[in-house]
Amino acid sequence: MNKIFDQLEFVENPLYESIIDDLLQRKYSVIDNFFTAEEVEVLRNALLMKYEEDQFKKSAIGNKTNELIEKEVRGDFILWLNEADAGKAEEVFFNRLNNLIDYLNRTCFMGILHKEFHYAVYPEGTFYKRHLDTFQNDGRRKLSIVCYLNDDTWLEENGGELTIYVNENANEQAVDLYPLPGRMVIFESQELEHEVQRVQHSKRLSITGWLKTR
Ligand SMILES: O=C(O)CCC(=O)C(=O)O
Ligand SMILES: [Fe+2]
């Protein structure tokens, strides 16, 4: 199909439009129920199976120092996803994300060419100290995306909030977001510092990733 038909077929998507509006206005967007309860359950089960099979690795931080210092910064365990040999669960995930990426590229000329995603498990007692995602020394990271895979028994006292630091009229404000199942948070990687508060009583499950240019 040629370009003109492509454009004629374009259908405005209200959800994606609201994400774009949020990003333009405040550099982050929170989308509850981006994934359905069933999709979250399937992804959570896939994550837990791999976690129990010991496929996860202790996360590292940009400048490799020693284990002790790393634990003081971030305590999660991760497993990178490979879209090329994704299972059924991850296929649903990538389809949904690719749709959003296509839309962003078409409507905002975002120029997103690459993406990288990993599963993450924050065991009880762990956290990720305040940082910018360019900490990982990757200037190509444009948008950070986090999708939460906890079950619906997740309680406020479990902590694990994602705190995003936003500047409003030169005042810094901390926005606390609970890792609720099906919730997706998307924010500007180069702009917003954020942290994961200490997780209590349970482990915190998610997929985190980046949309990248060039
Ligand atoms: O899990 C989250 O809410 C955020 C994770 C994060 O900041 C990161 O992996 O860089
Ligand atoms: Fe981060």
UniProtKB/TrEMBL annotation:
Keyword Metal-binding on this protein? Answer: yes
Q: What are the protein's UniProt keywords?
A: Dioxygenase, Iron, Metal-binding, Oxidoreductase, Vitamin C
Q: Which InterPro entries match?
A: HIF_prolyl_hydroxylases (IPR051559), Oxoglu/Fe-dep_dioxygenase_dom (IPR005123), Pro_4_hyd_alph (IPR006620), Pro_4_hyd_alph_FE2OG_OXY (IPR044862)
Q: Which residues form the Fe2OG dioxygenase domain?
A: 108-213
Q: Which cofactor does it need?
A: L-ascorbate
Keyword Iron (UniProt): yes
Protein name per UniProt = 2OG-Fe(II) oxygenase
Specify the species. Answer: Mesonia aestuariivivens
